[in-house]
Design goal:
Helix content: 25-40%
CATH topology of the largest domain: Aminopeptidase
Largest sheet: 6 strands, mixed
Radius of gyration: 24 Å
Structural class: alpha+beta
Strand order of the largest sheet: 1-2-6-3-7-19
Shape: elongated
Order of helices and strands: HHEEEEEHEHEEEEHEEEEEHEEHEHEEH
Number of strands: 20
Oligomer: single chain
CATH architecture of the largest domain: 3-Layer(aba) Sandwich
Number of helices: 9
Bound molecules: zinc ion
CATH class of the largest domain: Alpha Beta
Distance between the termini: 15 Å
């Protein structure tokens, strides 16, 4: 591959991508970066397309068509990042120190974007005809509601048979991750004067009963639900809001929870468990009620499903072999700790999905974000080899 693209070209592309802001506080969000990537592809005479998902917020695609026009191998990377927040250096002036590329998005995931784009450019420069097509999908909004990949799934304009998601895995082959469901439970009581609490129904007490059951009954139950590589299902009460003043019995208390679920669970099961303990909680205090709702304004409209692919799938076996050859590190399938757009593809389009990208997830969203430049270069080689393996 080295004769078609070199390491410094890949790293300089990663630097340019970092220097173009593409977060929610940036005016135009992903507009500039999508257009920049379009120009990069066009300069190489690679077919490209912008698809506006929201006004001025386009997905950017690059295509290498194959002779088998229905089949596509997708390289999927989100082009948005989180904002700079309190980073220890200028987040959008990338620099290299001790073999690390620093900057917002270096690890999540502009290093991977540079590697994906570069692998496709190398294949194009080589000029070999492909049987299966390759598509780069630079998607918007992954850090918020995942609208970019959701559009791909809804329109079915491209239905990839294989896909790599470039989230940071230290170049390990991640074959599973949990689903993520945000649920709100609103407890309703009866307000009255704080001096006569026996005349009211305290909604904070209702929430308290619920939380006690969550901790003592639901948590142990979830610990016993496990899935290979993923461990247990989990639940986290993250927000609790209730009451106005100390001298009023609160009639309203809202609890928001994050439930990480396993491929072996169903979404129905999740809600039934919550409903069961909520029913039990309000039975302890007469006059209370509750309402459970999905927080769909804050997460993907399609469910944030879990993802898994069999370790025996030929796509997994070949990826492990290729990654091992290139990194010289023994490779075993791993789980990805977060959530990824890959779940949308595997659950809705039946795509075989692997999560594999340069860098360590602990650096993502951190104030000291960086990515190993060797790993960005090795990711380029892995992506290139995957195209050669599955598309020629
Ligand atoms: Zn990410």
């Amino acid at each position: 591959m080295d004769q078609w693209i070199n390491k410094s070209e890949v790293i300089s592309l990663a630097e340019k991508l970092i220097s173009i802001q593409s977060h929610k506080e940036n005016q135009g969000q992903e507009f500039n970066i999508a257009h920049f990537i379009k120009d990069v592809f066009q300069a190489e005479k690679i077919m490209t397309e912008l698809e506006e998902i929201e006004p001025h917020r386009p997905n950017i695609y690059g295509f290498l068509p194959g002779s088998n026009s229905d089949h596509y191998f997708m390289f999927n990377g989100h082009i948005d990042t989180v904002p700079g927040f309190n980073m220890e250096y200028d987040p959008f002036k990338p620099f290299i120190k001790n073999g690390r590329l620093y900057g917002r998005g270096s690890v999540d995931m502009k290093g991977a974007l540079a590697a994906m784009i570069s692998a496709i450019i190398a294949i194009k420069r080589k000029g070999i005809p492909l049987k299966e097509g390759v598509v780069f999908a630079g998607v918007i909004d992954e850090e918020q509601c995942c609208k970019g990949t959701e559009r791909i799934v809804r329109t079915k304009a491209i239905t990839p048979t294989l896909a790599v998601i470039g989230e940071p895995t230290n170049l390990k082959t991640a074959i599973a991750h949990k689903g993520m469901e945000w649920i709100e439970i609103a407890f309703q009581g009866l307000a009255t004067h704080g001096s006569t609490p026996h005349n009211g129904v305290n909604a904070i007490y209702l929430a308290n009963e619920f939380l006690t059951l969550l901790r003592n009954e639901l948590e142990p139950k979830l610990k016993n639900k496990t899935y290979p590589l993923l461990g247990s299902a989990t639940i986290n009460p993250g927000v609790l809001k209730g009451g106005n003043d100390p001298n009023i019995v609160p009639d309203h208390c809202v609890l928001q929870i994050d439930r990480r679920w396993l491929p072996s669970e169903s979404i129905l099961e999740l809600y039934e468990e919550i409903e069961q303990i909520a029913t039990k909680a309000i039975s302890k205090i007469s006059g209370g009620s509750f309402l459970i709702k999905r927080m769909d304004e804050a997460t993907a409209a399609l469910y944030n499903m879990p993802h898994s692919i069999s370790p025996d799938d030929p796509f997994v076996i070949e990826t492990l072999r290729i990654a091992e050859n290139i990194t010289k590190v023994e490779s075993e399938p791993v789980a990805f700790p977060g959530w990824s757009d890959g779940a949308q593809l595997s659950n809705n389009l039946d795509t075989s999905v692997i999560v594999l990208g340069p860098g360590d997830i602990t650096q993502a969203h951190s104030n000291n974000e960086f990515c190993s430049i060797d790993q960005i270069w090795q990711a380029t080689q892995i992506y290139y080899s995957l195209i050669e393996k599955f598309c020629l």
